[in-house]
Amino acid sequence: MVKCQVVMDAMERLAPKKLAEDWDNPGLLVGSPSQEVNKVLVCLDVRDDVIDRAVEGGYDMIVSHHPLIFRSMKKIRTDLPDGRKLARLLKHDIAVFAAHTNLDIARGGVNDVLAERCGLGELQPFDTTGEEKLVKLAVYVPRDYADAVRDAIFSAGAGHIGNYSECSFNVDGKGTFKPLEGTHPFIGTEGTREAVDEVRIETIFPSMLQGKVVRELVKAHPYEEPAYDLYPLANKGAVYSLGRIGSVEAPVTLDVFAARVKEGLGADSIRVVRAGERLIKKAALCSGSGAEFIEKAAFMGCDVYITGDVRYHDAQRAVELGIHVVDAGHFPTEQPVVPVVAGYLRDELGKVRGGKDVEVAADDMLKDFFSFM
Ligand SMILES: [Zn+2]
């Protein structure tokens, strides 16, 4: 058993809330962070049949992609679908958490899973939504403790530059301090100025990790009051984006490509917008409902764009712009992330106290609302 907060923290590490679009409503939507969780059900939508399964299976938390509560509510009428669902969830003490556009954007989230299922490699950002802010840390450590502090801040995620990890710069120096009345100094005595051989360790980390890096630093540092500086940097951090651009190994026709996508997603049916005989090497994609980015994909030189919810005039525009479109459907482009999130939570909860016994299931029985005749 874990607290609901522990599951929320694990989800935050996968899909930080601050990645979400402004209009979105991710996070804990029903329940309390302090409630106990023994069974988690991961799904795309909190539908009536998902709640049925949660109630019958004794699940105490649902983690969904689409937020159950999206717009502000002025009434909870239990004779209408939203109120009915909320009443059942509250009655059975089932918490509901959503990771929506933050999970679309996150590395390893909906779009990365979709790209992998579509057989795309060499992934690049598509529609930029933000950029990681970087922070420089300088910490002053007595020489014998430098390794321990470096280990702690590196394992908290500091020190990554491109494909290099554990990057730091270290310079020896002399630190001075005078413990004042009431202190419990690790070195020295009250009222006397001390001089100690110290190392100034400098490293870098994404601002998102600041809390964790500082916490681990303070834990590993022997001093009562560790001295450290944090500098915001103007260096460019990693780019976050909705969607991805990727490439196929060798150019293929639209028919071959579309068949691969259909099979990769296990979709019953897909729709194809054919813009001439152009072969496919470079593709853009956006999970769910991304027809608004057809032009962008065309301007970025993509041969095909994969998304869902494409309307008639979107298709017309694509043909005019000369870019093929594969409309694989909203559900089939997003559902593949469900077992991935469930697997992630299983691994993460397995690392925390009480988390090994928590059962995590992926709702893989759900079907698309659309069927084809
Ligand atoms: Zn969606």
Automatic annotation (TrEMBL):
Signal peptide: none annotated. InterPro entries: DUF34/NIF3, DUF34/NIF3_bac, DUF34/NIF3_sf, N-reg_PII/ATP_PRibTrfase_C. Keywords: Metal-binding. GO terms for cellular component: cytoplasm. A divalent metal cation binds at residues 65-66, 104, 330, 334. Pfam families: DUF34_NIF3 (PF01784). GO terms for molecular function: metal ion binding. Belongs to the GTP cyclohydrolase I type 2/NIF3 family. NCBIfam families: YbgI_SA1388. This is GTP cyclohydrolase 1 type 2 homolog.
